[in-house]
TrEMBL record, chain A:
Gene3D superfamilies: lambda repressor-like DNA-binding domains. Residues 13-62 form the HTH cro/C1-type domain. GO terms for molecular function: DNA binding. This is Transcriptional regulator. CDD domains: HTH_XRE. The lineage of its organism: Bacteria, Bacillati, Bacillota, Bacilli, Bacillales.
TrEMBL record, chain B:
Keywords: Membrane, Transmembrane, Transmembrane helix. This is DUF2975 domain-containing protein. It comes from the Bacteria. Pfam families: DUF2975 (PF11188). The chain crosses the membrane at residues 7-30, 42-61, 82-102, 108-130.
């Protein structure tokens, strides 16, 4: 997919673990892993809102669009 | 769900008993009435896909308890569709053979048309079910992967 999830980069910047993030967001580790590994098909605004709040960042810091090569 | 599955399994059992009774009691009688065409071997051969379909349907019911939409269910639907197609093909060929051989008595034609019609309806319903199940599986996956 052309949308890249940079959650791992933000986690590293904030020196936060996946476990801590999942606890802060109130979602399961499995779901955070799906999001982090770019396997998610969609992200709810409420989840994005929580992620931005916890990591103190903008949606653009987490989601990046990269044009796919044909 | 368990109750529904038990009920379905019971219905499959009834269908199997009816099939056995048909093959053992009705088919020999039909064979004595229509001696000019091989009724007995044909009906016994056409019963094979029917009984296989019952076994597959029984296994599908067991899978339904675990998960309603899964790749297993899709595979079972595909097998059932293939079996119903085989049945339709068999009766289509039989109908054609009856006309070619010039043994087209009303009863035989009605009999073949009835089974052919039922098989075609089954193929259509199973195809629709397969498409719906595929769609549901995709929706379920999307819902699961929406965080």
């Amino acid at each position: 997919m052309a949308i890249i999830v940079n959650l791992d980069v933000m986690l590293a910047k904030r020196k936060m673990t996946v476990t801590a993030l999942s606890e802060a967001l109130g979602i399961t580790m499995a779901n955070v892993s799906i999001l982090k590994n770019g396997k998610a098909k969609a992200v709810k605004f409420s989840t994005l809102d929580k992620i931005c709040e916890v990591l103190d960042c903008q949606p653009g810091d987490i989601l990046v669009y990269e044009k796919e090569e044909e | 769900m368990q109750q529904q599955v038990t009920w379905l399994k019971f219905l499959i059992g009834i269908a199997a008993i009816m099939g056995v009774v048909f093959c053992i009691m009705i088919v020999p009688q039909l064979a004595t009435e229509y001696t000019e065409v091989p009724v007995k071997p044909f009906l016994w051969i056409s019963a094979i896909p029917f009984f296989i379909a019952l076994v597959v349907a029984f296994q599908m019911c067991s899978s339904l308890v675990q998960k309603s939409f899964s790749s297993h269910i899709m595979n079972y639907l595909k097998i059932l569709r293939a079996l119903a197609s085989t049945e339709a093909l068999l009766y289509g060929i039989a109908l054609l053979a009856i006309f070619i051989l010039g043994k087209a008595s009303t009863m035989l034609v009605v009999f073949c048309l009835l089974f052919l019609g039922m098989a075609i309806v089954l193929v259509v319903v199973l195809q629709m079910l397969y498409t719906a199940c595929k769609e549901a599986l995709q929706l379920e996956e999307e819902a699961r992967l929406t965080i």
